[in-house]
Amino acid sequence: MAEEKVLDIENLTIRTQRGRTLVDGISLHLYKGEVLGVVGESGSGKTLTAKTILNLLPENLSWEADRFAVLGADYLTLGKKDTKALVGQKIGYVPQNTGSYLHPMIRIKDQIIDGYLRYTKNNRGEALERARELVKAVGIRDTERLLKSYPWQLSGGMRQRVNIAMALMNQPRLIVADEPTTALDSTIQMQVLDLLKTVNDLYETPVILVSHDLGLVKYYCERIVVMYAGQIMEAATVEQVFSNPKHPYTRALIKVIPSLNIKKGERLAEIPGQLNAVGTAGGGCAFKERCSFRQEACEYTIREKTVADNHYYRCNLDF
Amino acid sequence: MAVQPCRHLLCGHDISKAFVVERWPIIGKPRKQFTALEKVSFHIDEGETVGIVGESGSGKSTLGEILGGLRTCTEGSVHYKAVNIRDMNRNQFRVFRRNVQFIFQDPKGSMHPYFRIRDIIGEPLKTLKLCSDREEISSLVEEMLAQVGLDKDIADKYPGQLSGGQCQRVAIARALIVNPQIIICDEAVSALDVSVQAQILNLLKDLQRKHRMAYIFISHDIGVVNYMADRIVVMNRGSIVETGTAEQVFITPTHPYTKKLVASSFVN
């Protein structure tokens, strides 16, 4: 794909003030019209990465990178104000917690147009007109009633639709969805994700879908990045990851999810041990303690490989 | 209404539960009610695993709580070994409490943050008056820790010092220490990471094989319930829409709601 690169991150590292590494040298690329899935368990650094793109990283964390270009703008040289403006105008954000992202004391209609009015010269009437259109587009029938209501009067699914509509207000050129459906029921989860997918198809808006659910990512994404302990373990297309997973962690992750055609009495595959803290790996592999293919070399070195069609993985073994 | 005595270990007849949303001022009679459960019947036998699936608000947790005696139902009855739990005397109820244990979704929330793990696991023995000897409790606690695959030195830690998976193991140990017949697992693995989830599920299955307990496994995750349960109950809006074996319900669902639920989950 020789298309436009929307996101070009090279060697991103996020540290705390005390120098603990939370995200350890990851590289991300996203092309126009693509849906990229970032999967990982809690503590793998996937949300922090998303927050860095949104310029929302908590102040007590610092990040550095060799290259960090979002929508053609270089974050490394861009001033604070410009970064803020860029994120506000061109990046849409769909949060995980549907409730706390919306202000409980402000009506939906005022919240939804707030960001829009800030970055356009249009007046309130026009903004509300656009809000109405978008709210209708995200599948809410009773638009007038919705716009008048407060967030706490709505269900989680409704709020998430409002969040998506709000993210779309400024015609974003990138959408970052951080676990958009974790708090939702499975039937509503599908509606919300279908909606994001429709937006992606219609406007060719690239989407970064951060999730812990490998099954979900499989259905909605074209490319997957598997993260563990602040590092990227494997990055490839969906077909490659599921038909030919290279990294032991990815393989284990696919196996531990109980499938519907599991035989009765069959034992579920498990990954021994527990998630280790980021940066404890020393020189070696971050996954070594839980890996069943562990070798001596894994203790101190790690090889990064890229095989056919940009299939990246980080392991000493060749599968 | 006369209810026939039942042969099952634990069963509920036509359980209904209405929560009072609003009361009339002064008079105190309910003004608005919300029906969480409507005429639900449920039974479980020894050594069996029954899964309850449904979305949030479908009443699956309420049903679990009523069956375990944590809540009372507005209508209907719960029978444990053919005795209505409302008609039980103190001793009978204590036996019931001992034999029906819970594991909750948020293990840290169900533990006292200032209690050591040793005291948390030993607590049921004291409250149910099964054992009062400190040494004996201590040795039992250590045995339980070993059974759930935890280290002995965890006993002197506080819940805040443990990871989610470890806490869930402690919760399992606490449920197991009184040697129950039924464990009600209310979303017991939902808060865990997938790699840890598999460990806990396997542990629960191993323990069941060893102790012949029955599980009521409440979850919204179809894949997990399918793996754990022999029989499955699908709930929607306070009533049961479909029951059957895992294959019947998930591979060939008949009710439109079950079909929708299976189609919208991303399990293969």
Short overview:
Chain A is 33% helix and 23% strand. With 319 residues, chain A is α/β, with parallel strands linked by helices.
Keywords:
heterodimer, A: 319 residues, alpha/beta, Rossmann fold, 8-stranded mixed sheet, 5-stranded antiparallel sheet, 10 helices, 13 strands, 23% strand, B: 268 residues, 4-stranded antiparallel sheet, 9 helices, 10 strands, 26% strand
Describe this structure in words.
The complex is a heterodimer of chains A (319) and B (268). In chain A, 33% of the residues lie in helices and 23% in strands. Chain A is built from ten helices and 13 strands. Chain A is globular and about 65 Å long. Chain A has one domain: P-loop containing nucleotide triphosphate hydrolases (Rossmann fold), CATH 3.40.50. The mean pLDDT of chain A is 86. An eight-stranded mixed β-sheet of chain A has the order 7-8-9-3-10-11-13-12, sandwiched between helices. In chain A, strands 1, 2, 4, 5 and 6 form a five-stranded antiparallel β-sheet that branches. The relative contact order of chain A is 0.14. Chain A is α/β, with parallel strands linked by helices. In chain B, the strands form two sheets. In chain B, strands 6-7-8-3-9-10 form a six-stranded mixed β-sheet, with helices on both faces. Helices cover 35% and strands 26% of the residues of chain B. Chain B is built from nine helices and ten strands. With 268 residues, chain B is α/β, with parallel strands linked by helices. In chain B, β4 and β5 form a beta hairpin. Chain B has a single domain, classed as P-loop containing nucleotide triphosphate hydrolases (Rossmann fold). The longest helix of chain B has 18 residues. In chain B, α3 crosses α4 and α5 packs parallel to α6. Chain B is globular, with a radius of gyration of 19 Å. The interface between A and B is medium-sized, with 33 and 33 residues.
